Structures are given as structure tokens and as C-alpha cells.
Amino acid sequence: MNIEFEYNQGCNKHINQDVYGYNKNFLWVIDGATEVFSNNYLSKLGDVYWLVNHINKSLMEQDTSLNLQDYVYFAIKKVYDLAMQLAPEITDIPTNKLPTYSICCVRYANNFIEYLCLGDCSLYVSNSPELRFTDERILPFHLQVNKVKEYYSHNVELYKKEVLKKVREIKQYINKENGYWIGTLDPEIINHAIKGKVKINPSESFLICSDGFRPSIDEAQLVYFNPKDIFDSEKLKEIIQKQIITEKKYLEETEIDISDDKTVLLVRI
Description:
Layout (H helix, E strand, L loop, with lengths): L1 E8 L8 E6 L2 E7 L14 H14 L7 H19 L14 E9 L2 E7 L3 E4 L13 H13 L4 H15 L23 E6 L5 E5 L23 H22 L7 E7 L1
Antiparallel strand pairs: 1-9, 2-3, 3-4, 4-5, 5-7, 6-8, 8-9
């Protein structure tokens, strides 16, 4: 297994809240959800930043003999225990106001990739490039936000105000039946992750990414390309740069910044 390309770049709107890492045959991408309720119980840099970076470090230190679910569970549990030492008062705060994140973690073994997803980080495999392995339960809520963005795209100030209002409203539905599931400090959330297994052969590739890259693949349609191109490291670099250019152009034309933190990890078996 060879890491062919890795990319992690924050946007200009806030501190980079994307992280990624790997430990032997485990690899992951974590996308911290932009804070809509500002919290600094754990760090002056923001609790989302603190949380994703500590989970990232904990994942790097885990026992790779564990199965995928336990690997992620115990990594989060270690961070939860630390958070309780630093700021036990956060147990009194509603879940929707605490830091959240999306995660895609995979384990490669015996020509199979096992995956675990919460939120909209994604896995793509070169033998079926048109397929996206992710957690689709968040999609209806994304579409609600996108409608608000489209409706107020003519007015920058209203756009920012109404999008924030809608996201705060939607966060009432996190980690509830008929809502959507997302990563939190609570390790038990892993029981609600989307899990699966996909065949991969020697010389084939897979890619995991945060949703800052995903819009160039699907609904935003910022950049058009052959899905197979994301498994070619040089073409992948070009796709990312085209997306960045398109985002900058959109900002110049509308004064609305649609950029996001971007993380991409391309691996060849």
C-alpha cells in the first residue's frame, strides 16, 4: 500500500478544521463542522479545532490489531476522557451546541477495504469510480441549506445571516432518529456509523476526502471531469486547482465565499 498523494488545505474563512492521518493499514479523513455556536471550553482556537486534532492524534496511537469499529471507538473515548478532565461543565451543554465532525476511516486487509463513515466525508475506489461510499443521511439537510444559499445569493449580508440561521436550526436534529448522525465527543456515536466493505485488487487505488473536495465531484458541479481522473495523482492536482480557481472566481463575481477546507488522500494498493 502506497500513499500516492495527500492534500490538506484550509480555506480563508476560519482556521483549518480538516485533519487526516494513517497508521499501518488504517487511514482516515476528519472534517470538523464549522462552529455556528462558538465554544472555547477546550481551546482558545475553538473546540472543533481541538476535537479533530486530538482525535487525529489518538487514532495515530491506537492498536492496529483492533477491528475498525473498536479502533475508532477507543480513539474517541481517549479524547472524551481528556475533555472531561479539562472542561467537565460541557456535559451540561446541549449536544447541538457542542463541536461536531464528519469522519471516514478505512482499514485495508486481504484485498478488501472496510469503511466507517459518519457525515459527508467520502471513499472512492478506482474499480467503481462512479460510486461514492459515504453517509447519505445528512444529504436532505444539506439540500435545505443549499436552497437558502440559492435564494439569498443576490444579497451577501442576508446570505450569511439566513444560512447561519438555517444551519443552527438543522443542528437540532443531530444524532436523533429521523435526523442525521454526526461525530461528537461521545464514542458511542460510532454505533450509528455507516459501515461496509468493498473489494479492491492489487494495483488499484482508493481515495478518501472531506466534502471540501467533494463538491467538484457531485452536486455543486464546479469542475467537470472523468471520475477516473481522481485516481491519477497529476490529474487530481489539476482538478483541485481548477476547483480553487472556480471558487475564487465565484467570490469575485458574487462576494460569497463558497470555499471550504479540503483534504484528499490517494492510496494505491
